[in-house]
Amino acid sequence: MSTANIPLNNSSPPAPLLAPSTRHAPHTPHAPHAHAVQFYEEDTALLDNITRTIGAALGSGGAGIVIATEAHRVALAGRLSSLGIDLALARRQGRYVALDAADTLDQFMVDSHPDPERFRTVIGDVITRATRATGFSNPSVAAFGEMVALLWADSNPTAAIELERLWNAIALTHHFSLLCGYSLSTFGDDRHDEAFRLVCAEHSHVIPAETYTALLTEDERHRAISLLQHKAELLNQTRRTIQQQEDRLRKTEKLAAAGQLAASLAHEINNPLSSVINVLYLLKNAGLDPTTHALVETADSELARVARIVRQSLSYYRIGTVPRELDLSTVVDESISIYREKAARTCIHLSSRITPALRIVGFGDELRQVIDNLLLNAIEATPQNGRIIISLHPARRWSTLQPGVRLTIADTGSGIPRTHLARIFEPFFTTKAEKGTGLGLWVVSGIVAKHDGHINVRTSEHPARHGTVITIFFPSTLPTR
């Protein structure tokens, strides 16, 4: 309906439109310039409040403006007529204006946003004409607007909030009270939380849904609020649980990807590795001097260990050896001897305090993999002239006093940022940029867990006391599986 077609009546104020038995319509709940919002579950609750608001204004000789969907306009007209209000007369007088919400929006929307100047022209003209039609200098003018709800339902909450603000702005120059209606079903997405708060903030009155407003006593309302708070907490817990499940799923996906990557790399490495092992075999039997022969033996031993890791990777870590008793002191000493030269080349002082003959039950190759990874990380993190100290001593688990050994690797590197500390054992998380894969510490944590061990990390970035200390406890024997 075009605003130009709204009839005017500038004669004396019209007589009330109510029948004698219903002359006193329900009073309007909103003061002049009030901007209220009603959240509703069923249309009936919304229509009840619109009927009271618009009916009271018309019954007192004022004006009513309804900008709504066709279904709501038709239902409201029937309800107002049942109160004895002559809507046909009110329309002719220009005191009752019923406009289609979508058509009215089209008159001032530009690029999916309400244009302030067009809004003032279109809506300002409607309010002015309806106000003049009453013949009073300060009449009661009540309006109901559903345009914001249409914008929200159209997934445009930003425009809805902008339109609410334009209604507040026009209230500075026009006298009217406004009721907006939003179905609660349109706020079912978590992403709407902040926008919902903004909607409430733009209104002077917020009317809860009918399951709350229908309660008559204060005790009933307190109980309802407590129940709603309980439900909100359950929803928060459910949300946290879902978030944890999503995090676990992402980690599982990463682990699956890691397994596929390991199997693929192992397959590619296997053939050249076999060739190198064969060359070393020939070298060992080529009459080498004792020193060179010892170095070749060491290389052959290390390559044999790599070959076993490759075979495990090809089976996605499903193939495992039987745990056996081993001397962890010897394993640690062997790893130190391999990396001592690498540390010396970067002027890093590498020292050790190893209690000899510390025996535990475990998987030797995997334990060496733990020590190698941690030693290499310490060397890469430690600057020139820094220090790395490795210690291995008998110990007991702090919580149960279970006997075992404690391995400590301490460096004077720059330390690990606190924001990274909680993630260093996640697969593919690395602070080494292109130099790291993010799998080393993840593998370490998995092997430690497999040995029923415990790993602890202490770190500091303090300029005077920087570095990282990684401590691992291994029990002497593995639990019966």
Report on the structure:
With 481 residues, this protein is α/β, with parallel strands linked by helices. A 6-stranded parallel β-sheet has the order 3-2-6-7-1-8, with helices on both faces. The model is unreliable at 1-32 (pLDDT under 50). Helix 12 packs parallel to helix 13 (364-381). Helix content is 50%, strand content 18%. The radius of gyration is 39 Å and the shape is elongated. It has 2 domains: 3-214, Rossmann fold (3-Layer(aba) Sandwich), CATH 3.40.50; 324-475, Heat Shock Protein 90.
Q: Report the CATH topology name of the largest domain.
A: Rossmann fold
Give the name of the CATH architecture of the largest domain.
Answer: 3-Layer(aba) Sandwich
**Given the C-alpha coordinates, what overall shape results?**
elongated
CATH superfamily of the largest domain: P-loop containing nucleotide triphosphate hydrolases
Sheet/helix structural class? alpha/beta
Helices and strands, in order, run as: EHEHHEHEEHEHHEHEHHHEHEEHEEHHEE
Number of helices: 15
Percent of residues in helices: 40-55%
Which oligomeric state applies? single chain
Q: Radius of gyration, rounded?
A: 39 Å
Domains counted in the coordinates: how many?
2
Q: How would you sum up the major sheet?
A: 6 strands, parallel
- Spans of 5+ residues with little confidence (pLDDT < 50)? 1-32
Strand percentage lies at 15-25%
Strand order of the largest sheet: 3-2-6-7-1-8
